[in-house]
Here is the input.
Amino acid sequence: MLSRVNPEVNLRWKYRKVMEVSLVLALLLVTATFQAFKRFEGKKQELKRPDIKIEVQEVPQTEQERAAPPPARPAVPIESEDEDIPEDETIASTELDLSQLPPPPEKPPEEQTGEEEVTPIFVAYDSPPEPIGGFEAIQRNLVYPEIARKAGVEGRVIVHVLVDERGEVVQTKILKSLGNNGCDEAAVAAIKSVKWKPAMQRDRPVKVWVAIPVIFKLKD
Here is the structure.
């Protein structure tokens, strides 16, 4: 109830009324909400179970390879208990008497060529050995073997020649042959029939090997 004398009392009364009205409205609103939305009852859904099939496969058994057995240990000699074997018996010696062997066969005698065997060794030189008169001198002194001439043999014989510091031919070897018809021997004889200039190395004569071709050609 409003008071005409004290306005503060009127204000409090209005405030209380407003609160009461607000509370009633709030209760009504909550009640209406519960009534409007009833309890929701959902349907139960059954979950489908996956169809799982388990297949069992037979695994073949593997055979483990067995390692080769180790070699047997050597037998250890054991003293025999047999009384029939004498204790002082010994084993005969197995040593070989090499003095009874026959002597080795003798080496067959080698043909004497009159030339000392020299192993070809490369020696650097400034100028090679040359026949005096040129290689034409070798061809002029060449004697055509009669057998090769009748057989019509033509070609080239290459001779490996060792010329020493004095310009002398001390050894020869056939590098390319025309066969067993006398041409190889004729080529060597023609090379030895001429005089040679030795190879020079820094103004000093040296012994060197040189390959010399000798041509066999029949005249038309």
Remarks:
- Strands lie at 130-131, 155-163, 169-176, 196-197, 199-200, 205-206, 208-216.
- Residues 130-216 form a domain with the TolA/TonB C-terminal domain fold (CATH 3.30.2420.10).
- DSSP finds four helices and seven strands in the chain.
- The CA atoms of residues 8 and 73 lie 127 Å apart.
